[in-house]
What we know:
By secondary structure, the chain is α+β, with helices and mostly antiparallel strands. It has helices at residues 2-18, 101-115, 140-146, and strands at residues 21-22, 33-43, 48-64, 67-83, 86-91, 117-123, 128-134, 157-158, 162-169, 172-183, 187-198, 200-211, 217-228, 231-243. The strands form two sheets. Strands 2, 3, 4, 5, 6, 7, 9, 10, 11, 12, 13 and 14 form a twelve-stranded antiparallel β-sheet that branches. Strands 1-8 form a two-stranded antiparallel sheet. A hairpin with a 2-residue loop joins strand 13 and strand 14. It starts with a helix and ends with a strand.
Amino acid sequence: xKKLILLLFVVSANISLAQETALLRLNYEKGASYDVTMxxxxxxxxxxxxxxxxxxxxxxxxxxxxxxxxxxKFTKMTMDMLQGGNVMSFxxxxxxxxLDAGGKQMKTQIQPMLDALMYVxxxxxxxxxxxxxxxxxxxxxxxxxxxxxxxxxxxxxxVGDNWTMTKEEKGMKMDFVYTVKTISENDVIxxxxxxxxxxxTGKITGDMLIDxxxxxxxxxxxxxxxxxxxxxxxxKVTMKTIKK
Length: 244
């Protein structure tokens, strides 16, 4: 009888755990500050390879109901590129005299991005509502959009639930599928999958760790294997967010 009761308790506990739900929302606090680190790489074999690292300071300047206002500024940027046998490297923490000729050339293009300030308004689902760059620098809006790499569903989710999100950038369409893998007291873990279409075709895989209390994706990994004009390319993006 004791074994039967224990078995029923274990089964009941597992069913309860499996049915636990989480309402995913960005619960930002006014005045909070975060360091967001993004590392991106692209590899097309002998044709081209590139690695970029960016650290962004994100400051929440206001929270009003379901929306928030923030200021974002690049605090560090590194880039290594191999194309046509030529190697170019840049590190914003280095003095100009310590950069090689290629690094100095890249600095003239990247420095305006480091000097600019991004003003971003979003909602607690993760949708970017408005972006303003001062002074305006081409390409920075795309990077600001990448700071939000998931839009949450309106309903609470449980293990096994999934939802979709579509991004379109420069002729490439990315259909993401987010599936709830686990829900614990502190975290929600998602599996990421999806399809790429348009000027490139391919598959998306990855995972994401969300802090359940704040709703902030503290770690995410997205991998893309795609074909671009008959050339295979792999792309990887990792993102980490730490509250200061």
